Amino acid sequence: MRADHKPVVDHTRPSRRTAARAAVLGSSIGQSLSPTLHRAAYAAMGLDWDFEAIECDESTLHGMLDARNSSWAGLALAMPLKRAALPWIDEVTDLALDVGGVNTVAFRKGRTFGDNTDAHGIALALREAGVDTPSSALVLGGGATASSALAALRELGIREPGVVVREHRRATEAQAAAGRLGMAVDVHTFDRLDELLHSAGLVISTLPAGAADQYAAAIMHSRAAVLDVVPSAWPTRLAKAAGFAGSTVVDGLSMLVHQAARQVALITGHSDVPVAAMREAGQTELARRAG
Fold this sequence. Notes:
- The protein is an alpha/beta fold.
- The protein has two domains: 2-116 and 257-290, Leucine Dehydrogenase, chain A, domain 1 (Rossmann fold, 3-Layer(aba) Sandwich); 131-247, Rossmann fold (3-Layer(aba) Sandwich).
- The protein has helices at residues 34-45, 58-67, 81-84, 94-99, 118-128, 144-155, 172-181, 193-197, 216-222, 237-244, 252-268, 275-290, and strands at residues 2-3, 20-26, 49-55, 72-77, 91-93, 104-108, 111-115, 137-140, 162-165, 186-189, 202-205, 225-228, 249-250.
- The protein is globular, with a radius of gyration of 19 Å.
C-alpha cells in the first residue's frame, strides 16, 4: 500500500520517558555511522532509547522484521536490504516505491511504515551548501544511491540529468527509477566524461570510496559543484580537487546526517530533531576512526 511521502509525526509513538529500541540492519554493518548519529539524537532529545547495529542479509530480513516486538520503534536499513524490504512492509511511501528502496521502517500500532530518506538527505545537503538551483547535473554511478540522487535532483527542478557509468548495463536500476520518477536520463560511459563536464553545473558522485579519484582532475577543471556521498576518509580526493578550483563542495556526512535526522523523526514521532548534535557526533566519530 502506498502512503503519503511527507514525514509523519506520530504522537502514538513511545513518549520521551519510555524506553524503546531501534537498530540499523545490513550486511557488513560494523562501520555504519547510524548508531553514532541516532544515539546522539536520542540523547539530545532526552529519549532513553537504544540503537544498535545488527548484521542481516536478504535471507534473514523477513524473520528479523517479524521478530520485532512492541519494544521496537523502528529500523534503518542499509545495503543490500533496501529493495529486498519492499514486499514485507505494510505501507510504503510513493517516494520509496519510485526510488526502488526503503531505508527506514517505523513500527506503528502493529504495522510497518516504510520510507526512503536518502533523497531528502541529498537534496537538503545541497540546499544547505547553496546548491539549490543547479543548471544541469551529472550523477556518477547507477545503483541505489544514484536512484536517490535522481529523486533529489527532481526536487531541485532538474528533470533530465546525465548518468555516467562504466558500462550501460550498470545504469539499469537508475534508469528504472528515473522512469518511475517521471524523469528522462541520458546514460553515458566514463570515456565521455570530459565532454559531458563542459556543461555540468553539479556532479554527484555515488561511487564507492576511491572510485572517483581518477576523475578528480577532470571534474576540478569543470568547476562544477560537487557532492561526494562518501562520508569517510574526508576530504576525498575528488572533494580536495574541487575545493582547490573554488567549486562548492558538499560532503557525504552532511547527506548522511540529514537522511538520519529524517529517520529519527519518522521512528520517534518527534519533529524536533537535533541536527547539530548529530553532525558533531558524526564528525567526532570520523575523526576518531581516522586517528
